[in-house]
Amino acid sequence: MGNQAYKNIRKHIQIWSHRSPFKRVISDLRLGTRSFTNLSVYSFGLSGLWTAVGSVILPFKILEILEIGTIEILGQPLDKNGALGVMSLIGLPMGAMIQLIFGSISDRSNRPGKRLSYLLFGGLGLGISTILLGFATTFVSLFLMYMAIQIFGNAGQGPANALIVDHVPTRRRGEASGVLNLWRLMGAGIVTVIVLQFMANYESGSAPQWLWYSITFMVVVLIVSTLWTTLSIRPSAKLKNTSLNENPTLENTSLDNDKPEQRFKLSKSYIIFLVALAFSIAALSSLQIYALFFLQDVVGLANPADGADLLVIVVIATAVFTVIPAGKLADRFGRGTLFFIAGLSGVAGSTLLLFVNSIVPVLGIGAILGFSAGLFLTLTWTVANDLVSRIAAGKELGYTSIATLAGSAAARFAGIGIDQLNNLSENLGYKAMLIAVAIAFVIAAVLLARVAKYLPQNDT
Length: 460
Hints:
The protein is mainly α and 460 residues long. The chain has one domain (36-236, 265-453): MFS general substrate transporter like domains (Growth Hormone, Chain: A, Up-down Bundle), CATH 1.20.1250.20.
């Protein structure tokens, strides 16, 4: 690239950097392969499908199966919370392993666009698996389809994890992580709200079509968003035989922790980060997974899907307006103080839920938890990208799936304990869960702030 062209790009970057964060997200649509938006749109459909299936479709399918008969695991009968938790728990190890394997495989090529074929493969397989989920009528068939969803979803997610490391310089990864989580949250919120509206009308006998409306909608959104990212950031023909580092259209910088050979030993900071990530995921997942049953049993809503709809809107809207500023502030001032704010907000929200008995205060508390979730999502992904090397980004970021597995497994396994404690005293299980969530927020915030303290400051 000539000097004049280089100067033009630098001038464009300087002008672009002074725009407001949300205007930048919109203008990104016109910036081709350098667009944070194009790098992130795939997460809209993927996150939307994951969230809607896990928090809406699966609970409805489990209740449907329980109406027909009992659910037993190793001779142990399970109620709705336990069945939901155990089924999710069994599928998670497979998903984590697949994400790590496919992320590692995608590291082995130096060609531009090396992650995109995996993202496309995973998206198409995930769509087919979700359609088959709708036909499940037994716990075994439901589990098998959920396992397929785990496999294909994580086959695409593992390589996609490294897109920011591949395309974005260190000094702007907070902002890129904010844009990624903006699309992720909007996908989770918009898709889940619409699916909740559909499923509020669902009856397996008299109105089964609403389940298929939900599945069709989720799959279409997934495929469109996956194609958007794979087509918009694919390399041009003249760059197909060029390594990524030689691509002049992408803004790349080497990381301070890149090494000439691939690392096989995780640093102490990264291990502490993974432990902290597990605690934050456990806290956030617990609040998400059992929200529908919490609204039914504690708040007393006859149709919890309607209340969950409002709650999702509040939580996601708050988080959406948090992630972009959080990323910008993280790039400019560091991550440590923001982690403490995220932890305190999470503790406040989960503690206040101990005292609710109607939907109105729940919605107010949902805004606090949405703020905390927005901070945690952006900050943790920013720090993860800071800690890994470019040459092994897919593999090393794949370890976050292990942390996610640990946190999600703890949250789902808690379903059995919630049911047992609820049997001893009304809603005792939900109260114990909320206390545990508050403790997890504290541990996560302290550990993450410690890791962030020792990160090198990025150039601005």
